[in-house]
Amino acid sequence: MKAAKSLLKMHLTNDDMEHIREAVKKAEQKTSGEIALAVTGESHDYAFYELIVSVVFGALVFLIMLFFYNPVISLIDTLFWDTAGWQVIGLYGFCAFIAIAAAYLLTNISAVDRIIIPRKVRQTAVYQRALRHFVESGIYATKDHNGMLLFISLMEHEVCIVADKGILEKIAQNDLDALAQELADGIRRKELAESLLSCVSSCGDILETHFPVKKDDINELPDGLIILD
After folding, report:
1. Are 168 and 79 contacting, i.e. CB atoms less than 8 angstroms apart?
2. Collapsed DSSP state (helix, strand, coil) of residue 45
3. Burial class, 168, CB count within 10 angstroms (exposed 0-12 / middle 13-18 / buried 19+)
4. Any residues with CB less than 8 A from the CB of 5 and at least 6 apart, and which?
5. pTM to 2 decimal places
6. What interhelical angle do 47-67 and 69-79 show, nearest 10?
7. How far is CA 184 from CA 54, 95, 161, in A?
8. Are 59 and 52 in contact (CB under 8 A)?
């Protein structure tokens, strides 16, 4: 069920997933290199930034209410027969709490997260999550250290290509970053499947140049797109 929801969110069908798997298989038939694909909804929960923004918003609401203290007191006196000092303080605290809660709910919307969280922070989070998957999935442990990971993080709208040391000895990271940017641009156009197919083909061509297929070559990694939690 979770995978189905993820596919829907990514505008991918089961046929698209099969086409992507076949594209990876085809690309790896002409190289000893390995191409792994993974996508996640978000690379970090960013709760710290969401909480800070919410508290600041609550404090701002509190200060605004202080600025309009007299009109607020007049309104309270109009609504109630008698008002104690602690009730006014309680009202201010309650309004600030409601403001913080509402802001926190709002900051959990992906579009808002991309506004309040610095891009550098998002890029670092995506890179760290990609490295984690790179290690956990064994991409780093291919026989010739020529595995590469195309990692997509949807909330951040970021793509990261992580390559093993065998690849980085022959291919500049800037070239891989350029491919990642092309893939990210395609995702923004809601062309994830088409962009992935194109990127996989380009990666296959690059790997073929430096790592031609061997007679004893075996497929060391899964070919399809892996959906992470």
Report:
1. no
2. coil
3. middle
4. none
5. 0.85
6. 80
7. 30, 41, 11
8. no
Mean pLDDT by 10 residues, the chain (229 residues): 60 88 92 92 91 95 86 74 70 90 92 92 95 93 91 92 93 90 88 91 91 85 87
Q: Which pLDDT belongs to residue 221?
A: 85
Closest to 225 (Cα-Cα) out of 54, 5, 21, 60? 21
Taking the CA of residue 221 as centre, how many other CA atoms within 13 Å lie in the half-sphere pointing to its CB? 31
Structural domains in the chain, CATH included, are 2-44+118-228 (3.10.310.50), 47-115 (no CATH)
Q: Are 12 and 193 in contact (CB under 8 A)?
A: yes
What stretch of H or E contains 224?
Answer: none
Strand-strand pairing, 225-228 and 34-40: parallel
